[in-house]
Amino acid sequence: MTHASALEDPVRAAAPRHRPAKSPRPAGPKGRGRRDNLAGYLFMSPWIAGFLLLTAGPMAASLYFAFTDYNLFDAPRWIGLDNFSEMLGDPRWRHSVRVTLWYVVVGTPVKLLAALGVALLLAQKRRGQAFYRAAFYAPSLIGASVSVAIVWKAIFSDDAIVDRTQQLFGIGVGGWTGDPELIIYSLVALTVWQFGAPMVIFLAGLKQVPRELYEAADVDGAGKARQFWSITLPMISPVLFFNVLLETIHSFQIFSSAYIVGGGAGGNACGPADGTMVYTCYLYVQGFENSRMGLASAMAWMLLVAVALVTAVLFWSQKRWVHYEEGAR
């Protein structure tokens, strides 16, 4: 038996061993995470392609053109900082900066005051509340389109509605769109008329103010004005900061209404005596009417830097007047 088993050992050793097949291991969290990431990138690929081709690419090209002499017809020629030095020495460029700053400083606060005032009225429960909210928000649905600017220009032109109303009250001012000093006020009136978006945001903020604070203030004998300054404004200060930030940025970017109300293409493109010569309007004149795309690109990047600085100042100032709830930061 010992000899036979000894002879069988080499045979058994040489014979192939049949091992049971191993079951496939389930995909771990790393494998599933990679597949999920791949699916996410596939769904995001149209947006990524659009961002690279329509946003990042043109921005990089405009940054290069800002340092070149480029007129859309000839190849760009590198000139360094000449566009920026010419821009700073241009009196029309300085005039466009003044007009834009005036529009931002005047138009933005008036629009926000109108939005907050109407939001305070609509926050109270009354009959037909939904209708009034929709009616006040409707102008913002139209947006700053060309059609609205054309209608607005017709309203404020000579012998139109505003002019006839002034004559009715014995005010001989005339049409605003023909007056270099009054035409900018028509743009302010247009932006104030479209206060629906900040109004809705203010209304949402007012709904979050606890009613117990007003009840306690009533018990202490505080009037409505005192309640507004001591309760309402501090409680909605984050919403107020958000609206101030967005509306300030939008005011710097005004173009279509200023261009159309000012007169459109031609020698009077930005209003009589450059009355509506906002920054973007002069940028358009230099880039597309004078075919100086290099100078227009330099102006665009200067505007970007200015808006970034204003945004940084607003974020810095919020520490002094914006009050967040405990733990919200």
From TrEMBL:
Residues 1-33 are annotated as: Disordered. It comes from the Bacteria. SUPFAM superfamilies: MalF N-terminal region-like, MetI-like. Pfam families: BPD_transp_1. Its main location: membrane. PROSITE patterns: ABC_TM1 (PS50928). Keywords: Cell membrane, Membrane, Transmembrane, Transmembrane helix, Transport. Residues 97-314 form the ABC transmembrane type-1 domain. It is found in: Cell membrane. It is a multi-pass membrane protein. Gene3D superfamilies: MetI-like (1.10.3720.10). The chain crosses the membrane at residues 38-67, 101-122, 134-155, 182-206, 227-246, 298-316. Belongs to the binding-protein-dependent transport system permease family. This is Sugar ABC transporter permease.
